[in-house]
Amino acid sequence: MPDRSGNNSSSGRKKGSSGRSYRSKAGLTLQPKKMRGRKPSSQRWLTRQLNDPFVAEAQSRGFRSRAAIKLEQMDNKHQFLAPHMRVVDLGCAPGGWLQVVMKRCRIEAGKGALVGIDLLEVDPVPGADLLVGDITDPDILQQVHTAINGQADAVLSDMAAATTGHRQTDHLRTMGLLEIALDFADQVLAPGGIFLAKAFRGGSDRQFQDMLNQRFEKVRYLKPPASRSESVETYLLATGFRGAPPDGLRADLPEEQTGYSPI
Predict the structure, then answer these.
(1) Is 208:45 a contact under the CB 8 Å cutoff?
(2) Which of 1, 109, 170, 256 is 20 to 30 A removed from 159 (C-alpha atoms)?
(3) From CA 131, how far away is CA 254, in angstroms rounded?
(4) Residue of 70, 198, 218, 223 with catalytic role
(5) CA proximity to 198, closest of 146, 234, 248
(6) Is 29 helix (H, G, I), strand (E, B) or coil?
(7) What is the pLDDT of residues 53-84, one digit of tens each?
């Protein structure tokens, strides 16, 4: 499963800057202090993280990743999370989205359910059931049905393929993961359910949107403020699940499995 950062599941997730930073006067860009020996791409990532206000906000509020801020922003505007929903979070590491869902859906004993799935072990989130495994594994699917006592009201996915630096390749690999996530949603969503997933703009996202239109009443693109403007990252929100089309219960799966990675 793919991985996400603070976006099934994952590895190569960046946790934050090691090393202290220089103090900065107002208006100046902060620079990590220990940069020697790091690759230019790592230096750019560290500098960006250090100066990202949403990283600072996530840390100050106790979220495990900045991705939690994205989910909050999307839900603030579109209000798709509701109390006592049964929610499945694909590629849930490190747990930022789980934290948001627990609070907004007010998950408690006997009222609602939250299941997180990732290839990596995730630190416990009180009230959530965490599964380690691949979402294409039938055993994982059965465990999900058991944990939520039936079908889900929402399937969320912040999965993205590990990036290569080649935009079209990255786009196609992430869209392949989207198809895997949709295939999973076909099998667990209750009628009227919602599907929210990360996508990369680039061409085949329109084809994927057509697949969503076959299954859901309404589909829209979302770009929360915490999603960097220069990034091709976007989110697809599909609401009003009608079921998989009769000519094929499952989305076409990509031939090549890919790893997960955060944006």
Answers:
(1) no
(2) 109
(3) 23
(4) 198
(5) 234
(6) coil
(7) 768 888 888 899 989 999 999 999 999 999 99
Residues 6+ apart with CB under 8 A from 172: 202, 204
Q: Do the beta carbons of residue 10 and residue 119 sit within 8 Å?
A: yes
- Domains observed in the chain: 67-241 (3.40.50.150)
Task: Read off the tokens for 225.
Answer: 């403020």
Please state, in angstroms and as integers, the Cα–Cα distance from residue 110 to each residue in 87, 127, 224, 238, following that order: 14, 11, 32, 27
pLDDT 10s digits, 182-211: 999 999 999 999 999 998 887 777 889 999
Cβ-proximal residues to 56 (8 Å cutoff; 6+ apart), any chain: none
198 is catalytic: yes
Class of residue 45 by CB neighbours under 10 A (exposed 0-12, middle 13-18, buried 19+): middle
Q: What is the DSSP string of 208-247?
A: HHHHHHHHEEEEEEE--TTS-TTS-EEEEEEEEE--S-TT
Q: In what order do the strands lie in the sheet with 86-90?
A: 129-132, 113-118, 86-90, 152-157, 189-200, 233-241, 216-222
Closest CA to 84 of 115, 108, 48, 49: 108
